[in-house]
Amino acid sequence: MRFKRCFALFAFWAALSVSPAWCAPAASGEYFVYFGTYTGFTYMLEGLPAGGSRSKGIYVSRFQPATGKVSPPELAAEMVNPAFLAVHPNQRFLYVATEDPLSRGPNFDHESYVSAFSIDPSSGRLHLLNTLPTGGTSTCYLSIDKTGRYVLMANFGSSSVTVLRIKDDGSLGEQTAFMKHVGKGKDPSFQSKAHPHSIDVSPDNHHAVVSDLGVDKVFVYRFDAATGALSPDNPPFVDADPGSGPRHFVFDGAGRFGYSLQEMSGFVSVLAWDPEKGTLTKVQDAKTLAPDFAGSSDSAEIAIHPNGKFLYESNRRFRGPNLWGPDTIGVFSIDPEKGTLIEVEQVAPGGTMPRSFAIDPTGAYLFSANQVSGNVVVFRIDGNSGRLTPTSTDLKLDVPVSIVFVPAPK
Amino acid sequence: MSQQKCRYRLALRRSATCMRLIRFALCLAIACGLSLAGVQAARAQGGDYFMYVGTYTGFKWVHHSRPYGRGESHSQGIYVSRFRATTGEFSEPVLAAEMINPSFLTVSPDHRFLYAVSEDPLSVGPPLDHSSYVSAFAIDSASGKLRPLNTVPASGTSTCFISMDKTGKYVMMANFGSGSVSVIRVREDGSLGELTSFIQDVGSSVDPRIQFEPHPHSIVVSPDNRYAIVSDLGLDKVLIFHFDVQTGRLSPPDPPFATVYPGGGPRHFAFDPSGRFGYQLSEMSGIVDVFAWDSSKGSLSERQRVQTVPHDFFGGNHSAEIEVHPNGKFLYESNRRTKSEEERAPDTIGVYSVDPQTGMLTPVEQSLTGGVMPRFFTIDPTGGYLLAANQISNNVVLYKIDPSTGRLSTTGREIKVDTPVCLKFVPVSH
Prior knowledge:
The structure holds two protein chains of two kinds. Chain A has one helix at about 1-25; strands at about 30-35, 45, 50, 55-65, 70, 75-80, 80-85, 95-100, 115-120, 125-135, 140-145, 150-155, 160-165, 170-180, 195-200, 205-210, 215-225, 230-240, 245-250, 255-260, 265-275, 280-285, 300-305, 310-315, 320, 325, 330-335, 340-345, 355-360, 365-370, 375-380, 390-395, 400-410. Chain A is mainly beta. In chain A, strands 1, 4, 5, 6 and 33 form a five-stranded antiparallel β-sheet that branches. By secondary structure, chain B is mainly beta. Chain B has two domains: about 1-45, no CATH class; about 45-425, YVTN repeat-like/Quinoprotein amine dehydrogenase (Methylamine Dehydrogenase, Chain H). Chain B is about 10% helix and about 45% strand. The interface between A and B is medium-sized, with 32 and 31 residues.
């Protein structure tokens, strides 16, 4: 047993130490960009699927940060509703949630799956390693812990978060944690029960933060990287405003602040993070909506620029039946001391319903995934101001909803 | 070192380094020695069984999804008693493994491993439970003590039922609280591996107190191991899933199903030994639905609806357990009766004879249980005795079964165990 464990540790260390060697040249080279899509519908309207999709799974493009060129997306792996993607820290494996295999909506979904893929370093194509149940339904988010030994999932439909072990070969193993959230929120149409929408580990890997849209809480769990277990922290959560709907959460690079994006209210709560105690303390509620906007924000994605100076968040605005938009990506500068946000601008995403966007690892470009208009628009980022300028790159792709970057070895 | 431990190690080390070969040889030598001793013991102890008793450790019972008598159970886990089927004698139960709320148990077909659910680790009741767990144990063939192998989440809450498929490669759980069923692979060494299936039940039924959401209460495979039957108390449905023994997967949703009388609350399901009939006990209505089971189509057709509640009884029936006698001629079901919220009525075990042609039931008698709240009972593997686990009166009471009529008669024998809720037998020195 001990030999086996030793070997496993060595293999893990070897894998980790090898990967930067072929990450490094890629920093000035190319990336694979993977796009997750909905294949069974265009979007969810009041919990029910609406519209169609011609997408067939996960797509991949090649991207040159030096020139901004992006190749047309090609099918990398066939799959039903690969709604969320996460890359292993060793950049060799990709993990994907099949959110809703029968495209029925969270209230009628019976099972979600998570698949492990190995990445072909020359073509970027994905080879399936294995697929397991996530242990929940309408799994809309997954992330990998810092050691690369666990995948953490938010099961929106069945109100739980789950953790599965990642084996040395990248395939998925046994469930190591299951936590059901109980309760409800103020808004009867979206908050009749708990709806965990995201889960991410803290920069030191000792905690996991879960945004629960249904109960208006941001949960903090202790995460044990030796066992993969989650246990409630003390206090177990920080409250968000009633009816606000916490959706996604991001830590700043320094691990001093956390930013909680609330889907319904459109606010970003700035929270000071105490990594010792595992506590979040509110510093600021930053408004992303214009004061004269009357409608719902439907805020979606949040990310911090690799330079730590800017925060971006997307909004899928809705003013009533068939009154969409104006959708925006909000740009904010971050006060380096206080972590607080100051709005820089709100930019049109170049399409409709930007459920997701991603900043490339060099920090030069932002890719906006516009779910309803079926396109991915590439913006140039001004490194000094954070401002976004659309480039001419506008990729046609049906119902894009998740974007990740992987260094492509030459 | 026990024989089990040795086997466990053998299973782990099936490879070809020199060190391993040496250990293998050593282990083999010890195993041979132990198994010789085991054979001698078996001769001396024919007809002996370990009887494992699952308990609630954190409360006495659950009513309307709330735990009652928190802190009043003095149990500490799973208990084991030796039972001699030839004479009906018990030994004093001893703690076999410490565990929180091990409310349901199952044993591997080779009798080497036992699996137990931790129904509600914080004893808060189904609506507030956050996670249930399932633990694997190796059975020490000499002492009956349980050696923990591993514990993993059940992938649900208030997991109240666990069973194994016929190959012993999978455990199946019903997660009452979170409304799902899950299947977990069992590894060669008996420990628990990955989740191979997860199905969230969706829907509701007519009783607003408990049926506003799904509550799967049991999951059992069909005799041919090709289907799994899930009794959902919240949906008033008996769900039928295809079970793939290669992958451990339950078929995708939209399974066919059978229904029970609205508000009935399907709880436990039993196949008869011939595999031609299935019996669904509903908790709230006290009805047993008799189904013909078509194993080629995986379908249940209703044959008879039997009301187990006497027509002159007015109160809550709270049916609990159902089992068909190994000879296939009798069916037993237990009732935890209340006159009102505050007052209990006499609990019973209903005895029925089974028509061998049609599977239909004819009442034989309603027998008392020798205690209060028989959440569980079982028939010993020889078919000679019925043992009733009375949750509130803290006793397991032994009844003699008349092999020609099925009637139960008192033996005057019982063992004391605090809050017993599940019983499983393992032959000694197999």
